[in-house]
Design a protein that fits this description.
heterodimer, A: about 200 residues, mainly alpha, 7 helices, disordered N terminus, B: about 130 residues, alpha+beta, Arc Repressor Mutant, subunit A, three-stranded antiparallel sheet, 5 helices, about 45% helix, elongated
């Protein structure tokens, strides 16, 4: 066994030692960040998003297409704002930030499918095609939750898969199922999984 | 943020400057300023760091996280286990074997000592 040696580097080694020690500390911090699940997905925020969606489903029911679209888009803006605020707050209370390594991975994985959803919505509306919208929204939102949730607790990607399943049914089922499936997904799933996350993963 | 590399950076990596040399690991008692060589090795340091922020991690989770091979991970996990720094539990998930690792109190103390050592080194070199 090598004999223990105390601190006390030869004078010429000081910069190298300092750099190596800093490098080791940085390595430990990065590894810990990579190994930590992003748990700031908000449970109560999800419940609030679900309530907004249920209200939107009630308000949009039976309305002309343009009003229906405006109601749901307005609800999406409100719900995303609630989700973003709740996530930032939960991360802060946990002593971390949405801009942490895990937080950035979550957000950067979650956003591309949402952006694709916005583009597809614009394209479909431009062609007057409203029927595929519920399926498209549910599928792409679910995709974002699955990809972002890969870096979070397991219940998050599971919620995303449920959204994707509802989206698939909406896309290929009768058009009349669109609204009830949106209520079940954006309303029901958010509230159900939000309660599970709030109870098991700190609010 | 740059991803920490677990690969050896240079052939001299194992040969630390003399101030970083210290006691060989193995769960032995170290003074506050003696380096625990066992967790100084990058792969083992990464394993201990990852386990420090998780209750437990499976073999496959560690392998994915540290981007290493089965053989490499096994070798280093065994060394940490022999030193008493990690506890290994083998079970079955249905028919699939499942190996789970936890950091022991000795392992947590070893990591804390290592962090203290690095901070002491930085303080010492700043004073010069």
């Amino acid at each position: 066994m090598a004999s223990p040696q105390r601190l006390g580097p030869p004078p010429g080694d000081t910069p190298a030692l300092h750099a190596r020690a800093m490098d080791n500390l940085s390595f430990i911090r990065h590894t810990m960040e990579r190994a930590t699940a992003f748990t700031a997905v908000p449970g109560w925020g999800g419940v609030a998003m679900g309530v907004v969606a249920l209200a939107a489903a009630g308000a949009a029911r039976g309305r002309p297409a343009a009003d229906w679209l405006a109601t749901w888009l307005g609800a999406a803006v409100v719900a995303l704002a609630i989700g973003g605020w709740a996530m930032t707050r939960k991360a802060r209370l946990a002593g971390t930030t949405v801009l942490s390594y895990q937080g950035r991975r979550f957000v950067l994985s979650y956003l591309p499918p949402i952006a694709v959803g916005a583009l597809l919505t614009a394209a479909l509306v431009r062609h007057g095609s409203y029927t595929p919208l519920p399926g498209t929204w549910l599928l792409l939102y679910g995709t974002g939750v699955v990809t972002g949730g890969a870096f979070s607790v397991r219940v998050v990607p599971l919620m995303g898969l449920c959204f994707m399943a509802l989206g698939s049914v909406a896309l290929f089922g009768p058009p009349a199922w669109g609204d009830p499936l949106m209520a079940a997904g954006f309303g029901g799933l958010h509230i159900l999984f939000g309660l599970v996350i709030a109870r098991r993963h700190g609010g | 943020m740059a991803k920490p590399s677990l690969a050896p950076r240079d052939p001299e990596r194992g040969k630390e400057p003399s101030g970083l040399q210290g006691a060989k690991g193995g769960g032995t008692t170290h003074g506050p300023l003696e380096l625990d060589r066992l967790i100084h090795e990058r792969m083992r340091l990464a394993m201990v760091s990852a386990l420090a922020v998780n209750d437990s991690l499976t073999f496959n989770e560690l392998k994915r996280l540290l981007e290493t091979t089965d053989g490499n991970l096994s070798v280093h996990a065994r060394k940490l286990e022999e030193a008493g720094y990690v506890q290994c539990t083998k079970s079955f998930d249905g028919r699939v074997p499942r190996t789970e690792y936890r950091l022991t109190e000795a392992g947590r103390s070893a990591l804390q000592r290592y962090l203290d050592h690095m901070e002491a080194l930085i303080r010492a070199t700043r004073r010069e």
